[in-house]
Design a protein that fits this description.
globular; alpha+beta; 4-stranded antiparallel β-sheet; 4 strands
């Protein structure tokens, strides 16, 4: 049906996908086995690819709801031209957990160092991002053994 091709093309543009395959679908099929570090790396790959669906697939539903409005993540994803994870290690500092983290059996806090390449200043939509070397704490949660780790929060 020709109409389906047009709709599929619109979805690809909306979610930032350049090809016909969905990285989000591939991630969803393998995320149960992924380590917390791999979740972080997938999230940054999704940001670099400007793929909203893939980004949301790395997040806990409570966090994803905050970003499901395309305008919210568009600020971030359209400002970032490139993103590269440098290190992922357990956090040694006490980090406050999001209020909903108690709904999950397990939580983990990681300190992530990463490098961002941003759009030229006049094209940036997210003034909170800094070009170059950055770091942030990432809180991951999961419902239990055999369930996927999901990003619940990030920040300093």
């Amino acid at each position: 049906m020709p109409g389906n091709e047009v709709i599929t093309g619109l979805w690809r543009k909306l979610f930032g996908r350049r090809g016909t395959s969905s990285p989000a679908e591939a991630w969803l099929s393998q995320r149960r086995q992924a380590s917390p570090e791999e979740v972080i790396r997938q999230h940054f790959a999704a940001v670099a690819a400007h793929d909203l669906e893939w980004m949301l697939a790395t997040m806990a539903p409570e966090r994803a709801r905050l970003y499901a409005d395309g305008r919210t993540l568009d600020k971030r994803r359209l400002t970032v031209l490139g993103a590269r994870v440098l290190t992922v290690e357990p956090a040694v500092d006490d980090v406050p957990l999001p209020s909903f983290s108690g709904r999950y059996r397990e939580s983990l806090v990681l300190r992530v160092e990463f490098e961002l390449e941003l759009a030229p200043p006049e094209q940036r939509r997210d003034p909170t991002l800094r070009e170059g070397l950055n770091w942030s704490f990432y809180v991951l949660v999961r419902e239990g053994q055999g369930k996927p780790w999901l990003i619940a929060d990030w920040g300093h």
